[in-house]
Amino acid sequence: MVYPDAMDQLELGELPEATTQDALFAPVRLAHAVRADVARPVAHVCLENVGPQLDRVFDYLVPPALDAQASVGSRVAVPISGRKATGFVVARDDQTTTGSRLRPILRVISPLPVLAAEIYQIAARIAERNCSSVADILRLAIPPRHARAEREYVSHYGPFMAGPEPLDAPLEQSVRADSGGEPALEFPEGQAAATWMPYTGGAAFLARLARGESPHAVCHALPGSVVELALAACAATRASGRGVLIVVPTSRIARSMAEIFAQRFGDSIEILVGEAAPESRYRSFLRVRGGQAPIVIGTRAAAWAPVSRLGLVIVIDDAAPTLREIRSPYAEARDVLAARAALQKSGLLVLSHYVSVPAAALIASGWAPLLEATPSVRAVKAARVTSPEQWVREGTPWSRIPDSAFTMVRDSLTRGPVLLVVPRAGYIPVVACAQCQRPAVCADCGGEMQISAPGATPACSRCGSLRPWRCSHCHGTQMKALRIGSHRTAEEIGRAFPGVGVVISGSQAAEGISVTVSSRPRIIVATPGAEPWADGGFAGALVLDSRYLRGQGMDADIAFVRHASAVVARVRPAEHGGHVMFAGGIDPEALHALAHWDLAHYAATILRERTALALPPAARWLAVTGSQGDMHRYLRILRGELLRSFNEAPEVPIPHEETLFATGVRPFAPGIDLLGPVPAPREEITLFFRTAITHGRALTRIARNVYRLYTAENLGATLRLEVDPRM
Fold first, then answer.
1. Separation CA 534–CA 223 (nearest Å)
2. Which helix (H) or strand (E) holds 385?
3. Which of 317, 291, 151 has the alpha carbon at shortest distance from 227?
4. Which member of 64, 129, 256, 628 has the lowest number of beta carbons within 10 Å of its beta carbon?
5. What's the CA gap between 9 and 272, in Å, rounded?
């Protein structure tokens, strides 16, 4: 606890010296034995659904009536601060550091040990790295209990009172040695195994998985081969008797992959998606925890799935925004799976049609080598990629649909279907003032004005206001289209190619998102992420307004190649006439990388740039958001504790209050810089802390402990702490 007299000495406008910080943290208590009528009477409980101030393990007494049920990993109800809370038993022994008399566990909610030991260890590690609480992570890892689903599971499979087998348990080897001494894989998919042959090191990666080893790799997949590569890697891992965990960006992709995997592995597959009904989600979780489903495919919530004898974790499309938690702990699925691979001694495969910057960092560190095809193979397997500016007699290179684009589409339609990608859905999703060219915004709420259908009145995309619009800058009343959506594009394309069928694929389309289309010649208009797969591949693809695929922020370049590579992957190889054209502005370096399918080199170049600028993942950043007064109270404690932890480092001048919230970069503690502030929503500000990767763990650990103190002493309103934020 914090002693009141010590806090009274810290004025609001001051930052404490390192020597004043000792009074801010509770003294270390020695453990002592507890005698009771049961063996191991002390249950160490980690609470769920609690605030940061309760982010620690509490000790409770196990009553004799609950001795058999209160096993490690079970969910229990306990008293805390005059109320009842739920939590998980993470250990049992006869030692406690509690000075007062232990309170007993109220009841065992479920005797099933739903919290696996390795999941708790990973939760603690990610909580420290991401300045989060373990309770925030357990909320993601363990779904709420559903009594009926639990009863059905126990009646069908029986209780799993013991956890998974030890991590060092001997593996049943399904590998034999041939006359040459090389391992031969005993799974039937010779064609699936051949999928890895074009990749340098691919055959060795597959063989190591089948031998029961745990290799790590980043694979830059050839166009259209992601599912086949994952299937072969899964089969090799299952050949060694181990489980596989696959995380994908959306539930639509998860279910589509599960159908393909079920044809090979039967009912040993389970789907874990966050939007599933509570009963269905808990039933699936129990099958995974009990070992009935050794293969799990799901969205980011599945990254915490307690797969028994985990042998391989795969993350597909790792830079997808949906693979980052939108609330604390703000963890990336890639980082969670990498931590699990390190702790559980399992294999790791980062698999995509591109290479993200964090994946490039794994390659640069040597922890996960790059698996990619040779340049000659990439030249044959990838489609031809061009832009209108490369065409000699292009009269209007910056027109939305240049002449060369019409020529390419017309030629491709003679061979099969054509994919046309538009960055935005709707009819005219963004309009601007025809006089001053400024984007038209609603006078009531500031939302973007849009036109939803031909002849429709412009309406606000946020509040739906239909009142007459007037520009706030020049007072003009006429609008023009600033961006054209998929519906308006389909209308224009239908007039340009009469007699050719046009299909719209997207969340706002009448028929929703199309997963696959036939090889019949027609035009498919889709938005990013809604592109279907065509039988035999698309004959051609045209990306309109491609500059808008970049998005904004630090990850704009990777966001572009992520969307662009998804289009190229759906088009036939160049040797079969496949052609992809990007109209509306494309970076020459990105075009070159796509044309040569050399996106690993492209990501490595971006990583070098971020290293020079000390940006993530080359450096560790921590963003803290809140009101200025609350931020100052938090920062004064944080800086004092940082100085105390670096007591052997040279002293850094203490910034005055007026400079603490000044703009720019200034030192905050040895090896830690302070940047900002920048405006944040709700009249708040955000400050950034920057340090080297080697100091990153110390920064996040201390910042987390200080925030626990901040909330326990009720020093201010809630703050938001986010490690390596998307900037």
1. 13
2. strand 384-386
3. 317
4. 64
5. 52
Least trusted range by pLDDT, from 247-251, 379-383, 648-652: 648-652
Instruction: Answer whether 650's CB lies under 8 Å from 669's CB.
Output: no
What angle (nearest 5°) sits at the alpha carbon of residue 477, between those of residues 472 and 479?
100
Tokens (6 digits) for 1: 């606890």
- Whole-number pLDDT of residue 236: 94
- Tokens coding 275: 């939007």
Averaged pLDDT, 53-69: 93
In this predicted structure, the answer to whether residue 418 has a pLDDT above a threshold of 60 is yes
Kindly give, in sequence order, each residue whose CB lies less than 8 Å from that of residue 4, ignoring residues fewer than 6 positions away: none
pLDDT of residue 172: 34
Query: Is 462 strand, coil or helix?
Result: coil
In contact, 332 and 324? CB cutoff 8 Å: yes
Sequence-distant (6+) residues with CB within 8 A of 330 are 130, 132, 324, 722, 723, 725
Place of tokens 């955000």: 686
Q: How far apart are CA 118 and CA 339, in angstroms?
A: 11
DSSP assignment of 417-430: -EEEE-SS-SSB-E
- pLDDT above 90: residue 441: no
> What pTM was computed for the model?
0.86
- 245: three-class secondary structure by DSSP: strand
Q: Which residue has the higher pLDDT, 29 or 209?
A: 209
How do beta strands 579-582 and 533-534 pair?
unpaired
Cα atoms in the 13 Å half-sphere on the side-chain side of 72: 15
CA–CA dist 437, 471 (Å, integer) = 10
CB-based contacts of 246: which residues, under 8 Å, 6+ apart? 230, 234, 257, 295, 296, 297, 298, 302, 313, 314, 315, 316
What is the spatial distance between Cα 30 and Cα 28, in angstroms, rounded to a whole number?
7
Cα Rg of the chain (Å, integer) = 29
Distance CA 631, CA 233 (A): 48
Is-contact 512 532, C-beta < 8 A? no
Q: What φ, ψ does residue 347 adopt, rounded to 5°?
A: -75, 160
Q: Phi, psi (5° rounding) for residue 544?
A: -95, 150
Residue 565, classified by CB atoms within 10 Å of its CB into exposed (0-12), middle (13-18) or buried (19+), is buried
> Range with the lowest mean pLDDT among 130-144, 514-528, 547-561, 572-586?
547-561
Nearest to 18, CA basis, from 707, 672, 646, 650:
646
Residue 693 in tokens:
């990767």
Alpha-carbon distance of 685 to 681, in angstroms, equals 8
**pLDDT, tens digit, for every residue of 338-384?**
999 999 999 999 999 999 999 999 999 999 999 999 998 998 899 99
Question: Is residue 311 a contact partner of residue 243, using CB atoms and an 8 Å limit?
Answer: yes
Whether the upstream peptide bond of residue 532 has omega within 30° of 0, thus cis, is: no
